[in-house]
Design a protein that fits this description.
The protein is of the alpha+beta class. Helix content is 39%, strand content 34%. The protein has one domain.
């Protein structure tokens, strides 16, 4: 009888240790919808629109890779912001004239739209001005 109890106890104890730890990290992951990164010398400023698996959206602001602020926004606002960025991105990448200068590109903006990237050079003044305005608008509306 004693040996049966020891056997049952050891089986129960073994099954407790055999269970893998459950992770809920996947519920908190966020996907970057778009990223605007402004590079000025050794300094950089970055704005991201992110979505979570649960359908929440946020705008993140970073200076030199240190998170400064993040603000949750509703789906309608996120869609408007995304539409505006997509419009600019497509216009810059496919509809605008390419750089004509033979000078080396001094990258001032790095854009990422769902994995598709684009570099904006400092001599592309019209694109730089549009992105500067967009960053100011995002900061005023969402990051105060």
């Amino acid at each position: 009888m004693k040996s049966i109890l020891v056997f049952i106890f050891s089986c129960c104890l073994g099954s407790v240790y055999a269970q893998e730890r459950t992770s809920n990290f996947d519920l908190r992951t966020q996907k970057t919808i778009f990223q605007i990164k402004k590079i000025e010398g050794k300094n950089s400023e970055q704005i991201n629109l992110k979505s979570s698996i649960s359908g929440q959206y946020s705008v993140d602001h970073k200076l030199n890779t240190q998170s400064q602020m993040a603000k949750k926004i509703d789906i309608v606002t996120a869609q408007k912001l995304d539409d505006e960025f997509v419009d600019k991105f497509i216009n810059f990448k496919y509809l605008s004239k390419e750089r004509t200068g033979k000078e080396k590109c001094i990258e001032i903006y790095f854009l990422d739209l769902r994995g598709e990237t684009l570099k904006i050079c400092s001599d592309e003044k019209a694109k730089v001005n549009e992105l500067d305005k967009m960053i100011v608008k995002i900061k005023e509306e969402f990051l105060k």
